[in-house]
């Protein structure tokens, strides 16, 4: 009797496990801890994007009539081939204790529904959210768009209801809401450094344009912000960032230690060369300098520098001393296109550079 009862219980347990294994994956979009099935539509090209570092991303959307979004992860079991558009059934499941620099979701291919050749000459259009946009033209207040000077860099990165970047001098943050092509931007916090012209004028015009934005248009890799009348108040292009190493950075301005960002003196040049082995060297305006640095994601630490012993004019020596002192304050770095910014932990600018042309 006991043996029969044991066999019955074992059979019941096996039946329950079999039924559980046959249950379909439920689409529980409201639950962060449950797996779901999704249909992904994949664009025909890989595009430049920035995750932990510059990389190539697929363009993916779940709504066939929606906009493509940058896809920073991989889909296990799926091999992308440029020149084709895809429809995929994908299993999406959370990853327990995912590293900070890794995706919190795992994607696994269930079925390749279709693979179609892209139309000849077709080009994927960038999306508002994802890429870093570099300001190329700005409203001057009279209704006319004027080109942004080559030595001024202003940017915008739209992600999950927040937009931020460089205003041309200071770092800014703002919130935004999207409804189709309608876009409303609400100004937020901003650092308060003083910079030379024309940076400050461009920054003021840029902040005014963001506040006036009512909609946007994207054409290829170009973005236009429009006011309530449909007039363009700012124009951008997608930025492709340079690498920290392997290029020579030429300083544009630096923090003089007296809460001011100042331009490099005429007839002097300050440079920075970051090597892959953790060495930083260059010209400080008079003498050559050499030091070490470490990076971790966007965090950076620069050691005190050793220099040659040449003497130059007093103002050049003062600039050199202030620049080398400023480097020790750097705690973060950010590359936007061909521009590099070193900043303190609270966002104050330490120094900005452009790549040598």
Summarize the structure.
13% of the residues lie in helices and 43% in strands. The protein has helices spanning 2-21, 199-212, 314-327; strands spanning 36-42, 47-50, 54-61, 69-71, 75-76, 84-94, 105-117, 132-139, 145-147, 155-159, 162-166, 171-179, 182-190, 215-219, 222-226, 232-238, 249-255, 261-263, 271-274, 279-283, 288-296, 299-302, 306-307, 332-336, 339-343, 349-355.
What structural class is derived from the secondary structure elements?
A: mainly beta
CATH architecture of the largest domain: Beta Barrel
- CATH fold name of the largest domain: Lipocalin
Largest sheet data:
10 strands, antiparallel
Helix content: 10-25%
Question: Beta-sheet strand percentage?
Answer: 35-45%
Q: List segments where confidence is low: pLDDT < 50 over at least 5 consecutive residues.
A: 1-32
How would you sum up this structure, described in words?
- It contains 3 helices and 26 strands.
- The longest helix has 20 residues, at 2-21.
- It has 3 domains: 32-124; 132-238, Lipocalin (Beta Barrel); 249-355, Lipocalin.
- The chain has helices at residues 2-21, 199-212, 314-327, and strands at residues 36-42, 47-50, 54-61, 69-71, 75-76, 84-94, 105-117, 132-139, 145-147, 155-159, 162-166, 171-179, 182-190, 215-219, 222-226, 232-238, 249-255, 261-263, 271-274, 279-283, 288-296, 299-302, 306-307, 332-336, 339-343, 349-355.
- The strands form 3 sheets. Strands 17, 18, 19, 20, 21, 22, 23, 24, 25 and 26 form a 10-stranded antiparallel β-sheet that branches. Strands 8, 9, 10, 11, 12, 13, 14, 15 and 16 form a 9-stranded antiparallel β-sheet that branches.
- The termini are far apart.
- The protein has 357 residues and is mainly beta.
